[in-house]
UniProtKB/TrEMBL annotation:
Source organism superkingdom: Bacteria
Keywords on record: Membrane, Transmembrane, Transmembrane helix
Keyword Calcium: no
Protein name: DedA family
UniProt keyword Transmembrane helix present: yes
InterPro entries, sorted: DedA_domain (IPR051311)
Protein source organism: Xanthobacter autotrophicus (strain ATCC BAA-1158 / Py2)
Transmembrane segments: 52-78, 134-159, 171-192
Amino acid sequence: MLRKLYDWIIAYSAKPSAPWALALVAFAESSVFPVPPDVLQVPMTLARPDRAWRYALIATVASVLGGLVGYAIGALLYDSVGKFLIDLYGYGSKVDQFRAAYAHYGHWVILLKGLTPIPFKLVTITSGFADYNLFWFVVLSIITRGARFFILAAILHYFGPSAREFIEKRLGLVTLGFLGVLVIGLVAAAYFA
């Protein structure tokens, strides 16, 4: 099943709608969706290394725009939608600590957590809830999300053929590793957010 899904994503990467799917996932991941855009960016870039920078730009722009939705949820709808989403991911007890951290370290919180596997929606919703400066939120989101997606694009662009061969030979192990990193990010967010 895993091989079929991987092959389908690789084949899907050649379709004109693939960048739209990447944009949709990156947008949604920054506000409400639990799956990171890496699950599309990686195979799409491996299938088309010549489009690595384009895919990184699409993921960055969509992620920042989705981050604005997350910010709005935190600023305008925290008591209903925002609290529900934070509680859904098990971070409800950490929001007050996270909010207090913004008073002193808001810029570092956004920059560092935007690079990690910690779901970015936690940063965006809490930024709105903490009333973090919107201009700086956007600037820092562009920097951190751009760095994340462009670093990934650079690695895949330069090591694409060997990375693709490695992934295809060890797809189960790579998937397990990716899931492990994701779980570590979620656990880290729960304990250190």
